[in-house]
Amino acid sequence: TGLARAVTLHGAPGVGKSSLARWLGERGHEVGACEVLRAVHGPSPSPAHGIAYAVRRHLQCGDLSGGPLIAQLARRLGCDPADPRLQTFAALVDPDDVHPLRYGVRLNRRARHRALLSLLERLSDTRPVVLWVDDAHWGHDTLTFLHQLMPVRAARRVRVLAVCTIRDDLLAGRPREGRLLTDLEDRPGVT
């Protein structure tokens, strides 16, 4: 429908939240109904956490950077290699912060979120995307991005279902993430 949606799965450890999210993604991919991205989060921030790394893994970018990364993004996204968005996408998924202006783009949080939105729009062009946000209670930046994703309507075709797994016992000690989740769950299109 072009509308981004979200589902939050709360519970104690071991009740099956991640198993349910994994099954949904695997089954959807198996029948050709969706692309699946798994964004993991942990108690200590890491370059392997978050949506940008999930996109990097999904697009099979490995250790690529610079020109080879842009070429891989063009191939996997079906873009013209001269598409100017590729510079921004490369800056988004390249974890190398030693050369932050390698792609001629500086990405603050707002610019990263706009780039993610554009990238998810491109990925969901062919098939909807199931974005599994594992351990969302540790993903402040990802939850902030989901706030921006949810109001997207048919004006931008972003066909994404975000499936967030949340451990309630750990969320209790994370008030900022707790507020973001409460606000997110009050929005239309979030169950």
Write up what this structure looks like:
This protein is of the alpha/beta class and 191 residues long. It contains 8 helices and 4 strands, in the order βαβααααβαβαα. The protein has helices at 17-30, 51-58, 66-77, 85-93, 109-123, 140-149, 168-171, 175-185, and strands spanning 5-11, 35-39, 129-133, 160-167. Strands 1-4-3-2 form a 4-stranded parallel β-sheet, with helices on both faces. α6 (140-149) links the parallel β3 (129-133) and β4 (160-167). The radius of gyration is 16 Å and the shape is globular. The two termini are 17 Å apart. 37% of the residues are buried.
**Count of individual helical segments:** 8
Series of secondary-structure elements, N-terminal to C-terminal: EHEHHHHEHEHH
Mean of the pLDDT scores? 89
Spatial strand order of the main sheet: 1-4-3-2
Give the end-to-end Cα distance, rounded to a whole number of Å.
Answer: 17 Å
Which residue ranges are poorly predicted, with pLDDT under 50 across at least 5 consecutive positions?
Answer: none
Radius of gyration: 16 Å
Give a quick account of the main beta sheet: strands, pairing sense, barrel closure: 4 strands, parallel
- Morphology call: globular
Number of strands: 4
How does the helix and strand content classify structurally?
A: alpha/beta
Helix content: 40-55%
| Strand content range | 5-15%
